[in-house]
Amino acid sequence: MTGYLKIVVALSVMLVGVSRFAYAGGAPNLEAGEHIAQTFCAKCHAVETVGKSPLEPAPPFRTFHKKWPLENLEEALAEGIVVGHEAMPAFELSTEQISDLIGYMRTLEP
Ligand code: HEC
Question: For residue range 50-90, what is the model confidence (pLDDT) as tens digits?
Fold first, then answer.
């Protein structure tokens, strides 16, 4: 019985640890998000609050939230879908990177 209890206690401690970790991952790191935008997206999109996109047809990031809620974009990125993105290279972002990126995009809303 005590052996069994010990296992239960160990498991709950592990679970608490995991959910804490998940929670920390859920808070976007805005600097990391900006870095991702600069690294993967800024070649074509304007990723700041001002400026034109280097690639003419690529809409500036700050206009995204006017078209659809950024949650939709978060979901689309998580599923690896980006609509109508012909000139766009395939990129793979982790859930955490996506959350950071979307968090950064939110800071561009007026
Ligand atoms: C090689 C150029 C290029 C890169 C790099 C690029 N994009 Fe794009 N993106 C485009 C172009 C061009 C369009 C417009 C496509 C169209 O309207 O058909 C676009 C459109 C989009 C759209 C859709 C906007 C809309 O109005 O429907 C989203 C969302 C988007 N890009 C996100 C990103 C993100 C996030 C990154 C970086 C991880 C990125 N893009 C990197 C070229 C690029």
Answer: 999 999 989 999 999 888 888 888 887 777 655 556 566 66
Closest Cα partner for 96 from 65, 72, 74, 64? 74
Measured in Å, residue 66 CA sits from the centre of ligand 1 at 15
Q: Which tokens in the block code for residue 107?
A: 């800071």
| Distance from Cα 26 to the centre of ligand 1, integer Å | 24
42 within ligand 1 shell (Cβ under 6 A): no
Task: Identify whether the C-beta of residue 78 lies closer than 8 Å to the C-beta of residue 98.
Answer: yes
Tell me the C-alpha to C-alpha distance, in Å, between residue 110 and each of 50, 65, 78, 92: 11, 10, 25, 28
